[in-house]
Amino acid sequence: MTNHSIAREGGCICGHVRYQVSSDPLIVHCCHCRGCQKNSGTAFALNALFEADRVTLLSGEVEEITVPTPSGTGQDITRCAKCKIAVWSNYNMGGLRENIRFIRVGTLDDPDQMPPDVHIYTCSKQPWVRLPENDRRAETFYKISETWSPEALARLAIIETSAGIKIS
């Protein structure tokens, strides 16, 4: 299913930062937790997860800031050094920080290609947000082994083996 030669680009609003992703995402989360609501300034965050080595900064300078998360582990948000738009995040838990980038779908040149695979933390979803009836959802998080596609699980196993970690 994944065509590893697929290349999609994105960037910040001022155009200073440009990046490329070189595959389909592992999964796309629509997160409704209060932390994502505060960090995005809206009702949810839409993140596409990619192996870190499949995300390339093409141009521009970025800066990382660490912000608290409800779990207490924190997240590093990578922003354009000029306009401060968040382009991706790294979560500081279970080996995710160095190995998986959470690309902000809205920063892709064609964000329409990446609708959510799952809505997470729906327990704190804004009451006026209506989810499509057939969309997958979880009250909090989910079991990776039961939610990710077989292909994404195989890619995750490669990350776990090469990094000597266990995420799933």
UniProtKB/TrEMBL annotation:
GO terms for molecular function: carbon-sulfur lyase activity; metal ion binding. InterPro entries: CENP-V/GFA, Mss4-like_sf. It holds the Pfam family GFA. Transmembrane segments: none annotated. This is CENP-V/GFA domain-containing protein. Keywords: Lyase, Metal-binding, Plasmid, Zinc. Belongs to the Gfa family. Residues 8-129 form the CENP-V/GFA domain. It comes from the Bacteria. The keyword Transcription regulation does not apply. The keyword Transmembrane helix does not apply.
